[in-house]
Amino acid sequence: MKPNYLQQMLSRDKNYRNAFVLAVAVPIFCAAAAALVLWGRRQFGVLFMPCGIKQLTGYNCLSCGATRATFALLRGDIAGAIYYNPLYVVFLVYLIFLYVRLAISLTVRPYHRFVIRLDRKRALLVAAIIAAFTVIRNLPFYQAVFF
Description:
The protein is an all-alpha fold. The chain has helices spanning 5-12, 14-44, 52-57, 66-75, 78-84, 86-107, 120-136, 140-146. The longest helix is centred in the N-terminal third of the chain and has 31 residues, at 14-44.
């Protein structure tokens, strides 16, 4: 009987085996961590400290609302997560996209090199988006609409 591609991948090549473990283990680990966090929150109440920057300055930092957005996403409340911190949700979607690309490139295409290209223009664009989001979310009209 001729072994299939997956059996060949897992038996012979260490790189393929590691890629397969990465592709399978990361989602399982994330699901277990999410279940643990939700269980811990129900058992112990608040697990996380409040934002130090907001307590010191009174302004929202870049990641203010990320913990609440995470809990909203774990409950399946996407609109609530976007309400708490929209940039964080976009960042998580981008991370999931990168993970799927990495898993596909490691398991489907043999020895295909996965590279994230971040040139100077893109880095400046990301920095400008982060700065604009941080400033806009602290303006009175944003807080009046969303908070």
